[in-house]
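Action item from last week, closing it out:
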Amino acid sequence: MIGKLVEFFKRPEPAILDARPGDASALAALHRVSFRHGWSENEFERLLADRAAIAHVARANGGRGAVIGFVLSHRVDHEAEILLVALAPGERGHGTATKLLSKHLGRLAAAGVSRVFLEVDEGNASARKLYSRAGFAEVGRRAGYYRKPEGNAAALVLGRDLNG
């Protein structure tokens, strides 16, 4: 326990920054280690160039280091869908995902988004906890949405109002 505390206090805070098209390679690499079917660098380049996309990255060492996490949304009028949230496996448990999501939701609100949605695998307890702490609640369910070798899993559709 003391070792983790020492590591935490020595660790420079990651910086949460707007994602840029040049981050596509890092996002693709993180996506590959976080999800079963990784998206390509070209797919991320297209997404980041889309005017409806809003994305943030977490960079290690106060912004001078590697991309260690990201969140990507697609906005339509006053609603947005969070498409992806990913964090490098070794970076989990340090509060970075919470900071990343908080900054992202603030940016969405500033862009005029009033309602945000996302989908999460019903078995992903850590993601569900993150979203619950961020004020998301279940608004729907898609049975058998995620195909897995051990059997299909439902996607929970979560939503949250940003104004008020």
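Closing note: The first helix runs from residue 2 to 10.
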